[in-house]
Amino acid sequence: MGAKVSDWRKLPLSLSELCIETTLRCGQSFRWRKIEDEWHCVLRGRLVSLKQDSSHLHYRVTWPTTASSPRTLPASAPSACLSPPPAKGKDSEEDDTTSLLHNYFALSLSVSSLYKQWAASDTNFARRAPAFTGIRILNQDAWEALVAFICSSNNNISRISSMVQKLCLHYGPYIGTIEGEPFHDFPGPEALAGSQVEANLRQLGFGYRARYIAETAHIVSSVKSPGWLLRLRNPACPALGEATTTIIKSEPVTQDVKPNLTPKPEQTDPPTKPPAEVKQEPEPPAPPPTYRTAHEALLTLPGVGPKVADCVCLMGLGWGEAVPVDTHVWQIAQRDYSLGKGTKSKTFTKTMYDAVGEHFRRIWGPHAGWAQSVLFTANLKAFKGQASNKGDGADGKKGEEEEEGGVVGSEGKSLESATSDHVTGAVKVEDGREEVVTETKTTSRKSRKRKVVAVAQDSGDDKTQVKVAEVEVVTRRTSKRIKYAAR
């Protein structure tokens, strides 16, 4: 397929305002791929390539010049219901890519100024943030964020990226190729709502998440009204690709009434009074969304618990105050802010989840989710070398529950996982699959064993006698167990 490639362009942007090496790797978006020294991802039907120096963000765009090629489907998926891929013409405007990047990276906000505000109100942030400047919250497509974070349940960044890549490869339209690697756009809800999608995704290794994705796609594409996700957006934060804020409202369908031009016959009888016209009152416009209403609406979808809903609110709907609480954030809350200490609860309740978010909102303000992402990144093992000695954790120690590459969901493959399928406080549970936060319990156990030993004794006549004796050996074993509660 032919492609139209633009020249390199650049935006004046310091590393303190945006660091793509950190922002694109810290578990927000899972489609950026680094090839040599450049980052590549499909955004709004174009393949965007990025590289950065100390003063500028450089970008180049690859446009498809013909209709997108058919999507690659698993061999067992002949009847998957797919919507036709959008086609890009040869004369596609490239000038809006600058605006798109401004929107995607939310460059209207000065993140260096926000860092100063957070550091002034939080000594812990002031101590850890200098090693992690330029981390921004990406303003992503809400549908992509929703599906990606459904995949994040009980998962790590590397595996989530692999799943999202499979979704694009098998169901998204092809856009272009970089160094032999094909790039596809993210599939829409219609493409993932077919009757065979769940079975296909299970074959691709999605496990129980396959059902959640297929059911959510069906609900968003066929059950909810058009634009439902968009109506959950923060009105102050335009959707990706929009120049201005657009809120879609449900309005009644009206029809224009044409005048009756047919001549009236002469009336001999007194005219009768026409029946009173019944006027249909228009439905009142829906109230503007809030973070709370958006969060509650997302919780109605399969596979979406409080943490996934907060991830979508923060990174897909523009609600900067959303604070996703997973194992890393809970560890930070306990270790650095003394939250949850002394609690006797063995499970992580909704009350505890809400308390962590409210605590950070009080400290960091309306962009608490942005500040949380800085500390979250500093807590990932993948960035251990970037952190200062004092930024690695309490007394320079890393968090015990971290997995290689960092964990977005509730990892725990190498740790003991709770078997309970419920959490008190009415936190939403999805088949016990999405586990949250931890309880650390240290136990000590005695072990008694009888052992036969040889005992040397002096007989007093310069001879040594060896006797066999049976003794009891007492040992004490101390173990530390980290338990995860299902969410």
Automatic annotation (TrEMBL):
GO terms for biological process: base-excision repair, AP site formation; nucleotide-excision repair. Residues 443-452 have a biased composition (Basic residues). Its EC number is 4.2.99.18. Residues 73-82 have a biased composition (Low complexity). Keywords: DNA damage, DNA repair, Glycosidase, Hydrolase, Lyase, Multifunctional enzyme, Nucleus. GO terms for molecular function: 8-oxo-7,8-dihydroguanine DNA N-glycosylase activity; class I DNA-(apurinic or apyrimidinic site) endonuclease activity; damaged DNA binding. It is an enzyme of class 4 (lyase). Residues 66-95, 248-292, 386-465 are annotated as: Disordered. SMART domains: ENDO3c. Residues 428-438 have a biased composition (Basic and acidic residues). It is found in: Nucleus. It catalyses: 2'-deoxyribonucleotide-(2'-deoxyribose 5'-phosphate)-2'-deoxyribonucleotide-DNA = a 3'-end 2'-deoxyribonucleotide-(2,3-dehydro-2,3-deoxyribose 5'-phosphate)-DNA + a 5'-end 5'-phospho-2'-deoxyribonucleoside-DNA + H(+). GO terms for cellular component: nucleus. InterPro entries: DNA_glycosylase (IPR011257), HhH-GPD_domain (IPR003265), HhH_base_excis_C (IPR023170), OGG_N (IPR012904), Oxidative_DNA_repair_enzyme (IPR052054). Residues 151-373 form the HhH-GPD domain. The keyword Nucleus applies. The keyword Hydrolase applies. Belongs to the type-1 OGG1 family. This is DNA-(apurinic or apyrimidinic site) lyase.
